[in-house]
Specification:
Keywords: Membrane, Transmembrane, Transmembrane helix, Transport
GO cellular component, one term: membrane
Shape: elongated
Distance between the termini: 49 Å
CATH topology: Growth Hormone, Chain: A
Main location: membrane
Number of domains: 1
Protein name: Major facilitator superfamily (MFS) profile domain-containing protein
Number of strands: 0
CATH architecture: Up-down Bundle
CATH class: Mainly Alpha
Pfam families: MFS_1
Helix content: over 70%
């Protein structure tokens, strides 16, 4: 049930994160080669520079998968990944307004961080979507796997379309350095959304625990009180402390 699964807040957050992660990945597809053209690299070296991010992604993705299997918080990994991507673009650009020189080794380090951070978003998102679907009562079978895989792939494809399209447009208008603010903004959106979600959920749990403790102490006993009193309600015994026999206060 695609409509039902998209109503889960965790899944919406993860879908948004996959889109933003794919945007940052696709951004370099259209702009990296013109950006490193100043170094006059050979075609072989240029190809090596292009695969650095993919190698970093391929090496770190199994590590994040293992962490997810060990029940590490996937949303914290997503926040960490967004910070890595922001740091990577800070070095690849570098950001305008900084005095950092444009050197090849800084671009290489930035690409390593970008691949490392992208894996920290893509892998935990898939795992978190799957676990959120199970918690909401979806069956543990191939139908749920298919829906989750479809959502993840669709979100990735959308981000992979938006990233290069906006990258080419912004590169022609403002140049590479200012254009990097677009993927950086996407990662900031992930970071803020993830931590906002974590804080809201933690606050909700604190409220539930507080109410649970109050109910356990007899302070907030849940009772259904009729809107219109009957003769039987009027005959409820009230003790000297102002409480009826069921333990709720009589006003």
């Amino acid at each position: 049930n695609l409509t039902g699964i998209l109503k889960v807040p965790d899944i919406l957050l993860n879908t948004f994160s996959v889109i933003c992660g794919a945007v940052s990945m696709g951004f370099l597809t259209a702009t990296l080669e013109p950006h490193i053209r100043m170094f006059e690299l050979s075609p072989v070296v240029t190809g090596v520079v292009f695969v650095i991010s993919g190698i970093s992604y391929g090496i770190s993705a199994p590590v994040y998968g293992r962490l997810c299997d060990r029940q590490y918080n996937p949303k914290l990994m997503m926040a960490f990944g967004s910070m890595c991507i922001m740091g990577g673009y800070f070095l690849i650009g570098p950001l305008p307004g900084t005095d950092l020189p444009q050197t090849l080794w800084m671009i290489i380090v930035g690409l390593v961080m970008e691949g490392f951070g992208t894996a920290a978003i893509m892998v935990p998102c898939f795992s978190d979507i799957l676990s959120a679907a199970y918690k909401r009562g979806f069956p543990n079978d191939l139908s749920t796997y298919g829906v989750v895989s479809g959502i993840w792939a669709s979100a990735f494809s959308l981000g992979a379309f938006i990233g290069p399209s906006m990258a080419g447009f912004l590169y022609d208008k403002v140049g590479f350095q200012l254009a990097t603010l677009f993927p950086i903004s996407a990662e900031i959106a992930i970071f803020v959304s993830v931590f906002g979600f974590i804080l809201c959920r933690r606050r909700r749990r604190m409220v539930l625990v507080s109410n649970s403790n109050g109910n356990r102490n007899g302070q907030y006993l849940h009772q259904e009180i009729p809107l219109i009193s009957t003769k039987q309600d009027d005959n409820v015994d009230v003790n000297s402390n102002g409480y009826n026999t069921f333990g709720s206060q009589v006003f």
